[in-house]
Amino acid sequence: MVGCDIMLASDLGISTIWVESDSRNVVKAINRELKYGPEIGCYLSQIWELLDSFENHLVTHLWREANKAADYLSKMRVGEDADLLLWPVDFPDMLRNIIKDDAQGKIYFRP
């Protein structure tokens, strides 16, 4: 999924990108801080090539609780082979509430 987000930003002509993921191992692999097997090497090469197309880029880890809106979106069901495109006016109420809580600085606790 990270690669798709980076491609979209590149297609939009964005020059600086900050990618956040709640997968610490993915972040470490992209930042070349973790050894990885050949089965994902080709994917990482593509991600690195995309990142190098930006003037500036940063890839960091954040806890799932701090990324509640993305976590919610990742669990939405869409039809097979369907892309999901939501405009703010179409956001489900639950997503609107998550965004509102984030904007108000609500603190989420890990169970």
UniProtKB/TrEMBL annotation:
Taxonomically, the superkingdom here is: Eukaryota
Report domain RNase H type-1 positions: 7-76
Q: Where is the signal peptide?
A: none
Which Gene Ontology MF annotations are present? Answer: nucleic acid binding; RNA-DNA hybrid ribonuclease activity
Q: Which Gene3D superfamilies match?
A: Ribonuclease H-like superfamily/Ribonuclease H (3.30.420.10)
Q: Which Pfam families match?
A: RVT_3
Report what the protein is called.
Answer: RNase H type-1 domain-containing protein
Species source reads Hibiscus trionum
> Upper lineage ranks?
Eukaryota, Viridiplantae, Streptophyta, Embryophyta, Tracheophyta
